[in-house]
């Protein structure tokens, strides 16, 4: 039971409101490892269904509602990253720029604007600082989403048809209408029919992010407006799989960092890409 308690506290990341509310909720539950495991596995659903935990969602929703419009889009975009995922600052900002979420203004470059967005989200405690990844001089290299805030992020992103993740246990009916940002989780069963047989509306997908194993059928002819293709650290990706990427006329960002089986980029790729760090590119 102590193991389950530690996992639940980890999800709270020191957020007093979350610790207090979930502690009070568990006080009325049978004190067994099985019962606490259920709570840990179902925190997302519990936020919606249980009045005792609904106060957490209400307060966090107010934090989200209080964000300026430009920060709301930048924040919801982060729902594509898995739980406890270390999000590299530069990677995130470059993606924001490619998506058009931040542009140069008032004498500032797009990257400087993205840096300011990042700092604002950090100051508002919408993202967590990873102290072990703080560079010399205090520069922040990576961040994470607080687990419970991430649940809010996912809920709002789905409500607005902004992002959808294909993962174990996902419900395709949750993807109502068009999807702008599609992520493929490492635990998804790689069901070809979902993408090839048009079980999802892919006609307006602007970004595709893959975690885990790569499959060639992930890119559909229907993804005509794809701007971001992030394949960083995927496995199974080969040089020949990149040939079809040249058909993505709107592509602004390509990441194949950590894909060590890639030896060369096809000549048709003219956009800025992130190549494997040890490739010599």
TrEMBL record:
<feature type="domain" description="Disease resistance protein winged helix">
    <location>
        <begin position="80"/>
        <end position="152"/>
    </location>
</feature>
<dbReference type="GO" id="GO:0002758">
    <property type="term" value="P:innate immune response-activating signaling pathway"/>
</dbReference>
<protein>
    <recommendedName>
        <fullName>Disease resistance protein winged helix domain-containing protein</fullName>
    </recommendedName>
</protein>
<dbReference type="Pfam" id="PF23559">
    <property type="entry name" value="WHD_DRP"/>
</dbReference>
<dbReference type="InterPro" id="IPR036388">
    <property type="entry name" value="WH-like_DNA-bd_sf"/>
</dbReference>
<keyword id="KW-0677">Repeat</keyword>
<dbReference type="InterPro" id="IPR058922">
    <property type="entry name" value="WHD_DRP"/>
</dbReference>
<dbReference type="InterPro" id="IPR044974">
    <property type="entry name" value="Disease_R_plants"/>
</dbReference>
<dbReference type="InterPro" id="IPR027417">
    <property type="entry name" value="P-loop_NTPase"/>
</dbReference>
<dbReference type="GO" id="GO:0009626">
    <property type="term" value="P:plant-type hypersensitive response"/>
</dbReference>
<dbReference type="InterPro" id="IPR042197">
    <property type="entry name" value="Apaf_helical"/>
</dbReference>
<keyword id="KW-0611">Plant defense</keyword>
<dbReference type="GO" id="GO:0043531">
    <property type="term" value="F:ADP binding"/>
</dbReference>
<dbReference type="GO" id="GO:0042742">
    <property type="term" value="P:defense response to bacterium"/>
</dbReference>
